Amino acid sequence: MTIDLLAARFEIEQLIYRYGHVLDAGGGEPFADLFVEDGEIQLRSLYADRTDVDAGIPWKEQGLSAGAELQGDRLVFRGRQKLHHFSLPKGNPAIQFHVVSQPLVTILTPTTAAAQSYMRVYATPHGQPPQLKVVGKYSDQFIRNNDQWKFKTRTCEI
């Protein structure tokens, strides 16, 4: 493995970790800046490919009212404005912690890459200990533009 490939993997892993930190800090423009201009987040059920479970789409009604588009088995937030809106706190005063583990990064070309990782979200309501709220996995597509890696697509299966 070359130094350039190692550097690319490191930069992408840092982007993956930064996503949770920025989201937990309140999101907004810093969150949208993690994505390319037409970047997107897709929400889909972890069980969508199983025929023995009626999976549904996570947070379907909330997502549609927040500007997401319904595309098959997923909600899609596309573009900076919708990503910005997706990242803002939603009336829940709990402190959140997005925890990502085991990122597997694949460099596809000098300007494209993909990754898979696992995620957990803990919430700490006022005066209570942290509680595990969500588990799932991320599937990511990245683009390198102006010497910087950014998310093109982040699919969150929960």
Q: Please give the CATH class.
A: Alpha Beta
Total beta strands: 7
Approximate shape: globular
CATH topology: Nuclear Transport Factor 2, Chain: A
Helix/sheet category:
alpha+beta
Please state roughly what percent of the residues sit in beta strands, choosing from under 5%, 5-15%, 15-25%, 25-35%, 35-45% or over 45%: 35-45%
End-to-end Cα distance, whole Å, is 33 Å
Number of helices: 4
Q: What is the average of the pLDDT values?
A: 89
Number of domains: 1
Main beta-sheet annotation? 7 strands, mixed
Tell me the Rg in angstroms. 16 Å
Q: Trace the largest sheet across and list its strands.
A: 2-3-1-7-6-5-4
* H-E order: HHEHEEHEEEE
**What is the name of the CATH architecture?**
Roll
How does this structure look, described?
Residues 6-155 form the SnoaL-like domain. Pfam families: SnoaL_4. With 158 residues, the protein is an alpha+beta fold. The protein has one domain (3-157): Nuclear Transport Factor 2, Chain: A (Roll). The chain contains four helices and seven strands, in the order H-H-E-H-E-E-H-E-E-E-E. It has helices at 3-24, 29-32, 60-65, 80-87; strands at residues 35-44, 69-71, 74-78, 95-109, 112-124, 131-145, 148-157. A seven-stranded mixed β-sheet has the order 2-3-1-7-6-5-4. Strand 2 and strand 3 form a beta hairpin. It is globular. The mean pLDDT is 89.
Structural topology:
Layout: H1 3-24, H2 29-32, E1 35-44, H3 60-65, E2 69-71, E3 74-78, H4 80-87, E4 95-109, E5 112-124, E6 131-145, E7 148-157
Parallel strand pairs: 1-7
Antiparallel strand pairs: 1-3, 2-3, 4-5, 5-6, 6-7
